[in-house]
Amino acid sequence: MKNHVILLAGGKGSRMNASVNKVLLELCGKAVIRRSAEAFISSADDMVIVCRENEEKTIRNLISLSPLPFPVHFTSGGNTRQESVLNGIKALTDVCDEDIILIHDAARCLVDYDLISRVIESVKLYGSGVPGIPASSTYKICDSDRKVLYTPDRSGLYEIQTPQGFSAGIFIPAALKAADTGIVFTDDAGILEHFHIPVRVVRGSSQNIKLTEPEDISRAVSIIKGEKKNMRVGMGYDVHRLAEGRKLILCGVEIPYHLGLLGHSDADVALHALMDAMLGACALGDIGKHFPDTSDSYKDISSVLLLEKTNKLIEAAGYKVFNTDITIVAQKPKLLPFIPQMLEVVSGKLDIPVSSVNIKATTTENLGFEGRMEGISAYAVCTVVER
Ligand code: MG
Hints:
Blueprint: E1 3-8, E2 26-27, E3 30-31, H1 32-38, E4 46-51, H2 56-63, E5 72-76, H3 81-91, E6 100-105, H4 113-126, E7 128-134, E8 141-142, E9 148-150, E10 158-160, E11 164-167, H5 168-181, H6 189-194, E12 201-203, H7 214-227, E13 231-244, E14 248-250, E15 253-255, E16 259-261, H8 269-281, H9 287-290, H10 303-316, E17 319-329, H11 339-350, E18 357-362, H12 368-371, E19 375-386
Parallel strand pairs: 1-4, 1-6, 4-5, 7-12, 17-18
Antiparallel strand pairs: 2-3, 6-11, 7-10, 7-11, 8-9, 13-16, 13-19, 14-15, 17-19
């Protein structure tokens, strides 16, 4: 089973009048057409680029700047989108009924792998998959004088994007038959709908914008730059001695045990490692600098409060935690049952999803100070991104 991509990069006819073909524009150092083709690097087995004849050479040059891992063929656009798609189908080679056809507007160059995968999965299950975003505005159906005829129910209304994916055995015969009807279809799924073949909508993406208006270019630039937000990494390590008459608090959770950790604050070794990782990622020193153990204000303080303060410090420096991974090294007690609670505390205080936090516990096979149960240590790594 192969995935064939038809990339629509410009037809003739009405669109011929446009002064510049948007797909040739450069966006943050890379041409739109190149970005669109690259989006399919992990999904396509081959690709047909449908373009204006007089732009084929330019597009070939842009595409060949660095080789794509699949063969790329070229064919010329038609007078309508439908004709262009048909030309694309005719330019495909070695197509079996089980294969998947993905038809994509090259002007949607910010499409991502996840969206393409959702489309492909839907085609495998249902024979079709078109990405859509639930309508968030109210739409009106008007007549040619802009007199409102009615307001459609918004709950079932989707704004449709590309790539639109279809099983080749379903779509190709329908597309060929549609060409004989004389009806102009504005999207590919419309052809199947005309022949009463079911079409499935999959979740689209608000970033999968189509470059149409000049402001779309600046929006695309900000989306691309957003993807490239600076990311930094930090690490933290801490040790506290186990002692009698102290509470054992790890990641803000009190663990029932006859020993606890000794320290100026509540000695939450895991949160201390995390805070050092956060400060380290932002080049802000360490917790000793910000919360000195010589200060009475931090005596017996809950480290959860210090975590909140640390989070404010890194926010003030322009960063936000992206994810963290914490390892607690303790021979005893068993910490596994408390990890879900710890995850809630850390993700809650940092205001990040639980899926962005990992906490694990390990023993040292009775080796070293942790193994002799003299103390507990913790390691943390943390990435931060610009806010
Ligand atoms: Mg400490």
